Automatic annotation (TrEMBL), chain A:
One of its GO terms (biological process) is phosphate ion transmembrane transport. GO terms for molecular function: ATP binding; ATP hydrolysis activity; phosphate transmembrane transporter activity. Pfam families: ABC_tran. This is Phosphate ABC transporter ATP-binding protein. It comes from the Bacteria. It comes from Desulfomonile tiedjei. Residues 23-264 form the ABC transporter domain. GO terms for cellular component: membrane. Keywords: ATP-binding, Nucleotide-binding, Phosphate transport, Transport. InterPro entries: AAA+_ATPase, ABC_transporter-like_ATP-bd, ABC_transporter-like_CS, P-loop_NTPase, PstB-like.
TrEMBL record, chain B:
Its main location: membrane. It comes from Desulfomonile tiedjei. Residues 481-848 form the ABC transmembrane type-1 domain. This is ABC transporter permease. One of its GO terms (cellular component) is plasma membrane.
């Protein structure tokens, strides 16, 4: 097993989270078949804050994000080592209920992916999955989630319309609403704005800002300005390794590692 | 580059342009040819089928005045080639003429020894006659046409020309036939010695005559009534001693009980079997004698056929002697069958039933001539109209109105039913050349209920050939369409769940690596020739299923139960162990489990049979024992669906939350317990439903289940399922697989299980593809031939019973085509069968496409 001597056993923490650390990633390695994609990643994700994962393409930031809610499990020949602790429990432990885990971690994908059904059904899907059938609960959740994702005013008159009729930005906010409706603790966002135009992007960023504090948000982004704008903490990854992790302002203005400096100043990437 | 830098548009090379043009042209031609071929196929089918519905037409008509004084005819005959017409008068004068032209031929006469004919009878083929005289004697005779084909050089010299085609030597008519040959048509008249029939010597009033040949032994049946009202039936058998070659003629007589009022009796009829004799008077009262016991005949039935004031004018049999044609002076015409009837108020339990009514003539029916090769017959009325009708289809095929008003005194239908000759007492005669290729076919006989001879009620019957000459083909397509639908329905009931669940399993639950291996295997399964499947199903599977029918039925109940139960047991295992056994071990275990399930049903079959079916399933099917147990089995799936639905609807969420909070092995135990409860409630519910249904008197036997036949629809379902499953499976799997992964990820990211994802997201999104997979499977099942030919028993029945056989449209074509002469009725009906099949698949595919487009529009934006 290849071990990176530099980072072996280290868990980077950023101090200053008001509610403490929610997720602790320790020595996390991940292989796709023979190819290793993550090397001994160690970091703590602060509760209630927005953590951005940045880095050039193929650096493993999306892999890490998907590792947090075990979406990677679907991939054939995947192996991991190390642990990811959620409130002290290893989510890769033998007795973990993966389905239950994903209910705690809402996920928003790169491309808006509403289901081909009505707006209401889309948002209520996590509840449907749980077997909730109470009409009032459903209605309340629908309204709250749409309001939380700043979509309510735009769609309240056409909740039964097909979600595919919405614009790209609206679709992505609907996906956020759907993630919120399941009442998660963590929101994992995998480049949520990469398929959107600048106006829609701005709206999503505003939304992330509003959700700060209520959810622990981990966001993968290519866009360094976006990371700088929305995140509290930023992790820079390169070639499957966590290079540097710290407060966003520090990472963008005064990084400790040369590589980070080169990346944030746009010298490569 | 040294040029000035000026760049015009680049020139495409000539050969590229030519190649492009060429490809364009050849693709266009090819495409048009393909479309043309398909349309041509369709046009060809229609072209082959259309003549079935054309009815009949008059090809040419010839009305002429015969030379010389003509006596009224008591008999009119015509040969098979419509060449010579023969009429016999009451005085024994025999006039002959050429049919088409009226050219007179040799006049002959019977030597009647100065007696006059008082009664005349002939057999159906017109060649054997019997004449009765005023002194109570009867003479048998023959008017036989002879047809010889001679080489051209043997034609006699000095022939007289009739017209371009025919020549005559005075008595015989010669015509040229292809191959330098000459056909000579001649005829022979013979009259035997007289036999005294009426013992009192009073004149024979009415009579009927039948001649049957059993090899070289003629048997004559003669029914007579003389002037004194004495009815006699006599049977004359001629036997030759095998050793001495001595011919012995034995006559036995039997006198029938008298009729109350015999003064008006005008008709007599007897059957070839000599089992029924009829007399009828002018008022339309038919007296039927049962003469099955020749020594002791009795008057079985008296039927009034005509309303008051209407006379019976025509009475006769159609070929086969099962249809009694009755015509009246009001122009009405109907057919009676002699049918064994429950509660018939007759002495022998049978009664004459009017089964068909024909379009009435405008005036009294005066003449009737049955066809010799089917149920077609001709009638004429007092206004001179001649109608050709078919007794089965009840259609009037041809209506002939003669140019001038003439009253036909006699008419005869040509032996091949392709011409009608009529004769009037004023000496004029008419001949019409007809073309009636498919007289018995109409939309009604093909698709409607037809009351066939010998059947106790109207029905849909397919029976294209029979043992006797008098057999009438029964060509209803309804049992065949039904058979096709039945085979399709039962095989889809078997195939759809397996194929779709298999597709969902491979697409959503199997790792891509395994999927890549399983799919080609299933596709290989699709390439097994269906004849092999049919062969195996018919010869191997059918006897096995018959032997182990109870175990086979038990499998459908036991295997799902066992699998679900094991799944719950699996949950009890610690998660770490379960994870370790994931993959190949689990896979192997599943197969072992299925094998074990089969073994269990094999063991449990007999006791299952004992408990549910009185110990013997097949005798239970035949009506022994109570239906409750079977009803229980049938209601189980419905009850299970209802119970589990209502459970999850009302307590599902709560139970789920509760179970979720518990520790691992206990929660699994509780889940198992929950499932057992559902199963128990289901059993209870179906028990209650079954008992109450049975109490109400509902019995599935006689409808969807019934008497067991070895080659049955269940076997067809298995075999056809085997053919259809790979098809549905592959297409459905492709459709499911093509659902974008981001939807799968979104659903799983919401915390849905793979099963929930499959049912709520993947399946609805892929519905258009899955639906067309099912429809294509259905199209295959509808058109499938060899499996149904070999394993369905080919019995064209209208019976929903899953344990009975069937005959599908496709199988019918395969089975009957060798029996169908080109351009014959059966041949064209088989083409119609193909057209119907084509129509069915066309409708199925069109519906599939429309529904698919609808679904697709919904999922289009993805």
């Amino acid at each position: 097993m290849i071990r990176n001597s530099d980072t072996n056993g280290t868990v980077y923490h950023v101090q200053g989270g008001p509610m403490g650390t929610l997720l602790t990633i320790k020595d996390f390695c991940l292989w796709y078949g023979r190819a290793q994609a993550l090397f001994d990643v160690g970091m703590g994700v602060e509760k209630g804050l927005v953590t951005a994962l940045i880095g050039p393409s193929g650096c493993g930031k999306s892999t890490l994000l998907r590792g947090i809610n075990r979406m990677n499990d679907l991939i054939d020949g995947l192996r991991t080592s190390g642990e990811i602790l959620l409130d002290g429990t290893d989510i890769y432990g033998p007795d973990v209920d993966v389905i239950g885990l994903r209910k705690v971690m809402g996920m928003v994908f790169q491309k808006p992916n509403p289901f081909p059904m009505s707006i209401a059904d889309n948002v209520c899907y996590p509840l449907k999955v749980d077997g909730v059938r109470d009409k009032k609960t459903l209605r309340d959740t629908l309204e709250n989630a749409l309001k939380a994702s700043a979509l309510w005013d735009e769609v309240k008159d056409r909740l039964q319309d097909n979600a595919l009729g919405l614009s790209g930005g609206q679709q992505q906010r609907l996906c956020i609403a759907r993630a919120i409706a399941g009442d998660p603790e963590v929101l994992l966002m995998d480049e949520p704005c990469s398929a959107l135009d600048p106006v829609a992007t701005a709206k999503i960023e505003d939304l992330i800002d509003e959700l700060r504090g209520r959810y622990t948000i981990v966001i993968v982004t290519h866009n360094m300005q976006q990371a700088a704008r929305v995140s509290d903490n930023t992790a820079f990854m390169y070639l499957g390794k966590l290079i540097e992790y710290g407060e966003t302002s520090v990472i963008f203005t005064n990084p400790k590692v040369e590589k980070t400096m080169e990346y944030v100043t746009g010298r490569f990437g | 580059m040294t040029d000035s830098g000026k760049r015009g548009p680049k020139k495409t090379r000539t050969w590229v342009l030519i190649a492009d043009r060429l490809a364009d042209r050849s693709i266009t031609v090819g495409g048009v040819l393909v479309i043309g071929a398909v349309l041509g196929m369709m046009v060809f089918l229609v072209h082959e089928v259309l003549p079935l519905f054309r009815g009949g037409s008059v090809e040419s008509s010839h009305v002429y005045q015969l030379q010389g004084k003509q006596e009224p005819a008591i008999n009119l005959a015509m040969d098979e080639y419509k060449t010579i017409a023969v009429s016999v008068s009451r005085e024994g004068q025999v006039a002959t003429w050429h049919v088409e032209t009226g050219f007179p031929l040799e006049k002959r006469s019977f030597d009647l020894k100065d007696k006059t004919i008082t009664a005349f009878a002939k057999t159906l083929d017109s060649s054997n006659i019997a004449v009765g005289f005023s002194d109570g004697t009867v003479r048998f005779g023959r008017i036989e046409f002879r047809n010889d084909v001679l080489p051209e050089d043997q034609a006699p010299a000095g022939l007289k020309k009739i017209n371009e085609l025919y020549e005559t030597d005075g008595s015989a008519v010669y015509s040229r036939v292809p191959g330098r040959q000459i056909r000579k048509i001649s005829f022979k008249l013979e009259l035997d010695d007289e036999i005294q029939v009426s013992e009192s010597g009073s004149p024979i009033k009415v009579m009927d005559y039948r001649l049957t040949m059993f090899g070289e032994r003629p048997k004559r049946i003669l029914l007579t009534m003389d002037g004194s009202g004495t009815a006699t039936m006599s049977m004359t058998e001629t036997k030759m001693n095998m050793f001495t070659r001595k011919v012995v003629t034995k006559t036995s007589k039997s006198s029938l009980p008298p009729i109350p009022d015999s003064s008006d009796v005008a008709f007599a009829l007897v059957t070839e079997m000599a089992d029924q004799a009829y007399f009828a008077d002018k008022k339309g009262i038919i007296y039927r004698y049962n003469t099955r016991d020749f020594e002791h005949p009795f008057l079985a039935e008296t039927v009034e056929t005509m309303p008051q004031g209407t006379n019976l004018t025509v009475l006769g049999f159609l070929m086969g002697e099962a249809s009694l044609v009755v015509g009246g002076s009001d122009g009405s015409l109907s057919i009676y069958f002699l049918l064994a009837r429950e509660g018939a108020k007759t002495l022998d339990g049978a009664s004459l039933v009017r089964t068909r009514k024909f379009e009435p003539h405008n005036s009294a029916v005066t003449g009737f001539s049955p066809g010799q090769r089917g149920k077609t017959f001709a009638t004429c009325d007092s206004k001179g109209e001649i109608w050709l009708r078919n007794g089965t289809s009840e259609e009037t095929l041809v209506k002939i109105s003669p140019p001038e008003k003439s009253s036909w005194q006699a008419l005869v239908l040509a032996p091949r039913m392709n011409g009608i000759l009529a004769f009037s007492s004023n000496g004029s005669s008419g001949f019409w050349d007809l073309s009636v290729p498919h007289p018995e076919i109409s939309l009604h006989t093909l698709f409607g209920k037809v009351w066939y001879e010998g059947y106790s009620e109207p029905g849909y019957t397919w029976q294209s050939s029979g043992a006797t000459d008098a057999f009438e083909p029964k060509l209803s397509l309804v049992p065949l369409i039904f058979g096709t639908l039945k085979a399709t329905m039962y095989s889809l009931m078997f195939a759809i769940p397996i194929a779709l669940l298999g597709a969902i399993y491979t697409s959503e639950f199997l790792p891509a690596r395994v999927r890549g291996k399983i799919k080609p295997v299933m596709e290989v399964m699709a390439s097994i020739p269906s004849v092999v499947l049919g062969f195996v199903a018919g010869l191997v599977l059918a006897p096995v299923v018959e032997n182990w029918i109870s175990a086979v039925l038990l499998v459908f109940l036991a295997l799902p139960l066992l699998l679900v139960f094991s799944a719950y047991l699996w949950q009890l295992m610690p998660a770490s162990t379960a994870v370790r056994l994931e993959g190949l071990p689990k896979f192997v275990l599943m197969f072992v489990l299925v094998g074990f399930g089969f073994y269990l049903t094999y063991l449990g079959g007999p006791s299952f049979e004992k408990f549910f079916f009185n110990g013997n399933f097949q005798s239970w099917l035949n009506g022994e024992g109570s239906p409750a147990a079977f009803l229980f089995l049938m209601t189980v799936p419905l009850a299970a669906a209802a119970v589990s639905w209502s459970f999850s609807r009302f307590w599902g969420y709560r139970a789920y939350q509760y179970i979720r909070k518990m520790e691992m092995p206990y929660s699994a135990l509780l889940d198992l317990f929950r499932w057992l409860c559902i199963a128990g409630v289901t059993a209870l519910l179906s028990y209650v439903i079954a008992v109450s249904l049975a109490g109400v008197g509902f019995d599935p036997r006689g409808s969807i289940v019934g008497t067991y036949v070895q080659r049955n629809t269940l076997v067809v379902g298995f075999a056809m399922g085997f053919a259809v499953i790979p098809l549905i499976y592959t297409l459905a799997e492709d459709a499911l697989n093509s659902v974008p992964d981001h939807l799968r990820a979104a659903s799983l990211g919401c915390g849905a299980t793979p099963w929930q994802t499959a049912i709520w997201i993947i399946l609805p999104t892929a519905l258009s593809g899955v639906f067309s997979a099912v429809m294509i499977g259905m199209g295959r099942a509808v058109g499938e031939t060899m499996i149904v030919v070999m394993s369905a028993g080919n019995t064209p029945l209208l019976d929903l019973n899953i344990f009975n056989g069937l005959r599908a449209l496709s199988a019918n074509i395969a089975v009957e085509l060798p029996e169908a002469p080109k351009d014959g009725t059966l041949y064209r009906v088989l083409f119609l069968t193909g057209l119907v099949l084509f129509g069915m698949t066309f409708v199925i595919n069109t519906v599939a496409e429309l529904v698919r487009l609808r679904f697709r529009k919904r999922a289009m934006q993805l």
